Amino acid sequence: MTDISSIDFTPLRGYREVQAISRPSLSYWQDAWIRLKANKRALASLYIVMALAFFTLFGPTICTGIWCFDPALQDLDQVSKPPGTSRAALIVDDYQPWAGDRFVIDEGLRLGEPATTQAVRLQWNALPGANGHRVYRNIFPVGPELAYGIPLAEFFDNDTLFFEDRLDLRPGRYYYSVVPLGVRGELLQGYQMIEVEVLRVTTLREALERGLVEESADVKVGDQINLAWHPLGTDYLGRDMLARLMAGARVSLFIGVGAPFLFILFGVVFGSMAGFIGGRTDQLMMRFADFVVALPFLLFMILFKIAFGVGPGESGVFPMLVALVVLMWPATARLVRGQILQIREQGYISASQLLGAKTNYLILRHMIPNTLGVVLVTITFAIPNAIFIEAFLSFIGMGVAPPTPSWGSMSNEGIKTMLTTPHELIFPSLFISITVLALNLLGDGLRDALDAKMRNTE
Amino acid sequence: MWIYVLKRLLQGIVTVWFIATATFFAMHNVPGDPLLNDRAVSEAIRINLEAKYGLDQPIGTQYLIYLGNLVQGDFGISFTQENREVNDIIREHFPISAILGVLAVVFAAAGGILFGALTAIYRNRLPDYIIMLLVILGISVPSFVIAALSQLTLVTLNSAVGATILPVAGWGTILHMLVPALVLGLGTMAYLTRLMRSSMLEVVNSDFVRTAKAKGVPPARIFTKHQLRNAILPVITVLGPSIAAITTGGFVVELVFAIPGLGRYFVQAVQQLDYTVIMGTTVFYGAFLVFMVILVDLLYGFIDPRVKLEK
Fold first, then answer.
1. Closest residue by Cα to residue A244 from A394, A405, A83
2. Strand pairing of A88-92 and A201-203?
3. Residue B140 and residue A306: Cβ atoms within 8 Å?
4. What was the ipTM of the complex prediction?
5. Looking at CA atoms only, how far is residue A16 from chain B in angstroms?
6. With bands split at pLDDT 50, 70 and 90, how would you rate the model's confidence at B97?
7. Angle at Cα B19 formed by Cα B17 and Cα B22, nearest 5°?
8. Each residue's pLDDT tens digit, B188-241
9. What is the DSSP secondary-structure string of B265-303?
10. Which of left, alpha, beta for A279 (phi over 0: left; psi -120 to 50: alpha)?
11. B10 close contact with A: CB closer than 8 A
């Protein structure tokens, strides 16, 4: 060996740390958040979900000059009104009884006075060969098949030759027909028809009562005013759609968010207990879960409602919640048990045990945080499912009943008038669809971000 | 093997018994008295009913009578429809629901497998995007909305042509069944497509497919014999629960399309508090679903030899 002294060595210049950490260390959740942010679809869905939460929580507090939240108020001047249509109304005098103008000689069926939503006044001359007349109203002209429409009135003599229609008049076009009656009251040939354009009117008194015009304003008969504004139109009882959608969101999302949280909580506790204790207890607990899975869950949901004493036609929000919780937990329990069983065998658990960790510490510090990702994904998929179930039950009339609005019950009401006023069906079902869509996409995104195993297969 | 089948059947019977028991006690908790209806029941009928169901006896005895009747297949007589046995109602209306359900399952399975396989093969290309967009829509839109919209489409279509191409509602011919079955199966089809896609993606790049390609097996044969057959297994597993979903989803479709199936009768019975019909149909549906799931599980064992049923 030769002598080596310090002069033989020259220190390296520009010393580089070989084992430097090139990127900052990220926790599981930070990493997941970065991945989620990179996923445009999931991020957009997250914004939609946040907007929905805002809509539900703060929508009902809105009350400004132009629009006030009141899901129960009926605006009978604007029934089943699609959004964006004219809301102008003419101010007329208060209603006065009318007994026809007997002595005016004219020909055929005619209007006694201009037709308004207050009243349509008809007058006619006795039809040839008639022993009386029957008045009909339709929204289509009478065709060759002689579909006259709804019968409004019958007169068994030729003395009364006028009729005043005040039945549920809406602005729009109506076809009135008068049909001659025979001796025994049978319909004869030779009807007369008139096309009537009905104008929307309101009285000064009503306008003042509803606050459509101010007391001080100088409004008189013959002026045109604007009726109340309904951004999304009104339903078949003249209630504001937007207000009802906001109120319905509270019911739908209460079930949709409340039930999944509760049953997932229960499932997590049940599953982690079974997984952690293991052995016979685990077997027994899982058999019980299998058993609950086998129960036909929709039928039981309906039975729960009956058993809670909520009759048909009554709103059963609470029984619906309980039924969802009681019947839906096993899926989560299974999942969590599987996770726990997997985690229990991991090296870091053994390491922690070697270092003297107690059971409580193991559960709180290792088991639960490691299953949290899976549980979060389950929640995002369970929420749309619960919303669907609420809508389905309300749709078949077993869930939320009128007058309480929910998106499902609103769709149920809207489907009846689907052909004439589709907006009553479209808006609630659009809200259901968008919510479910956003939550599904968010769930997909969360799964990709949180669950490394699922990520790799896709 | 047979021991396993027996065990599953026994398990199924216990589940059905539990359903029957739960139904019985749930119906007992319903407020009100079926014999004190708006339509007064005559004294003679009341005594007959009390004798038949032991209504004047303690609840334990009533329960035993109920179970006895059930074992003999007697579901009782409807409370609201005169002179109609629940058995008759089930016999008349269940076949309609069953036909609709079978058609829907066929639609769902065929469509799900086909579309799922297509999306996997055309992964990240146009067919994949189009089908997956439709799948997301199918999952997000409630079935009653799809039912209503398809009815609306049929109405416009029929009036545009001036003849009834496909009937809008009702029941009778095969034409009546097509659209309701399609609507009923759509949600499940979307779900199965997703499942099939992910399981097909796993298979597409697997070793045995590569080996087959290397051997020079024609692509069509690889697709049918190697890829489809292996990817189809998870789809079959969920077919059992899917049948359950389709059967309960049938309630809505039957209501919207005015189909005289059992689901509509069940909903009607619940709304009218027709005790015997509710109990009868619940137990019947429950038993049907439970044994359907068992049947599918057993079939799975035959299709996939790797699954050992004895465990």
1. A405
2. parallel
3. no
4. 0.74
5. 43
6. confident
7. 110
8. 888 888 888 888 888 887 888 899 989 999 988 888 888 888 888 778 777 777
9. HHHHHHHHT-HHHHHHHHHHHHHHHHHHHHHHHHHHHHH
10. left
11. no
Q: What is the pLDDT of residue A456?
A: 43
Give me the pLDDT at residue B215, please. Answer: 92
The residue type of A175 is Y
The DSSP symbol for A221 reads T
Q: What is the pTM of this model?
A: 0.75
Indicate yes or no: CB of A437 within 8 angstroms of CB of B136: yes
Q: What is the pLDDT of residues A308-323, one digit of tens each?
A: 766 655 667 787 888 8
Which of A215-219, A237-241, A277-281 bottoms out in mean pLDDT, i.e. has the lowest?
Answer: A215-219
Q: Which of A326, A395, A406, A454 to mutate to test the interface with B (most CBs of B within 10 A)?
A: A395
The CB density around residue B133, as the number of other CB atoms within 10 Å, is 10
- 3-state secondary structure at position A116: strand
pLDDT (0 to 100) of residue A16: 66
Structure tokens at B139: 């999952």
DSSP A61: G
Instruction: Say yes or no for a CB contact (<8 Å) between B267 and A398.
Output: yes
Cβ pairs bridging A and B (under 8 Å): 125
**B203-209 contacts: CB < 8 A, separation 24 or more?**
B203/B227, B203/B230, B203/B231, B204/B120, B204/B121, B204/B123, B206/B230
Among all chains, which residue has been given the structure tokens 């011919």?
B173
- Look up residue B311 and give its two tokens: 């465990």
Residue B294 tokens, joined? 């068992």
Tokens for B142? 């409630």
Q: Which of A286, A299, A457 to mutate to test the interface with B (most CBs of B within 10 A)?
A: A299
Which residues 111-130 in chain B show a CB within 8 A of chain A? none
pLDDT score of B309 more than 70: no
Asked if residue A112 has pLDDT above 80, the reply is no
Q: Is residue A215's pLDDT more than 50?
A: yes
Nearest CA in chain A to B252: A396
Quick one: DSSP state of residue A131?
S
Q: What is the number of other CB atoms lying within 10 angstroms of the CB of residue A17?
A: 6
Which residues on B lie below 8 Å from A441 (Cβ)? 136
Q: Cβ(B239)–Cβ(B109) under 8 Å?
A: yes
Q: Write down the H helix ranges in A210-278.
A: 241-277
End-to-end CA distance of chain A: 62
Q: pLDDT tens digits for B255-279?
A: 888 888 888 888 777 777 777 888 8
- 3-state secondary structure string across A2-26: CCCCHHHCCCCCCCCCCCCCCCCCC
Position A458 confidence tier, pLDDT thresholds 50, 70, 90: very low
Percent of chain B residues topping a pLDDT of 70:
90
Nearest CA in chain B to A436: B140
Q: What is the DSSP string of A360-385?
A: HHIIIIIIHHHHHHHHHHHHHHHHHH
Tell if the CB–CB gap between B270 and A418 is shorter than 8 Å: no
Quote the minimal CA–CA distance from B124 to chain A in Å. Answer: 12
pLDDT bracket for residue A369 (50, 70, 90): confident
